[in-house]
Amino acid sequence: MGIDHWQYWKNPPAEKVEWVEEGIRNNEFFFVKSGDEIVGMVRILEEDWLYWGEQKDKALYVHSLVVKEEYGGKGVGSDVLKKVENRAKAEGCKYLRLDADSKNHKLCNYYENQGFKKVGTKEVTLSVSNLYEKEL
């Protein structure tokens, strides 16, 4: 989709590698399949200290939602978000939260069209992210 905000993964800094390794150790990554083919992935967190800090209300946090290019625009991302939302509701969460690079206007608009509201911004090492939440 011509989005370049993930280019740092070609030569990721150590903290990003550790972030992925931590998610693998904690079984937080989930793969999306169509038949036998993996078409995407998502990381689901029960807390997100880096972007959100300590929060009072229970929430699930969506990270690294990616879909293979050839499956883009076919509703895969929406389906994943709906399944995560259903899980969050079942677990008694008040919110579903995520972040998106503030320069990625297509992605920000996508999340807003999925019912997320921008509630703030967070500056991190490589970017400024918009913080979004959806009340459940």
UniProtKB/TrEMBL annotation:
Domain N-acetyltransferase: 1-136
Pfam families: Acetyltransf_1 (PF00583)
Organism domain of life: Bacteria
Native organism: Fulvivirga kasyanovii
Alphabetical list of Gene3D superfamilies matching this protein: 3.40.630.30
Name this protein carries in UniProt: GNAT family N-acetyltransferase
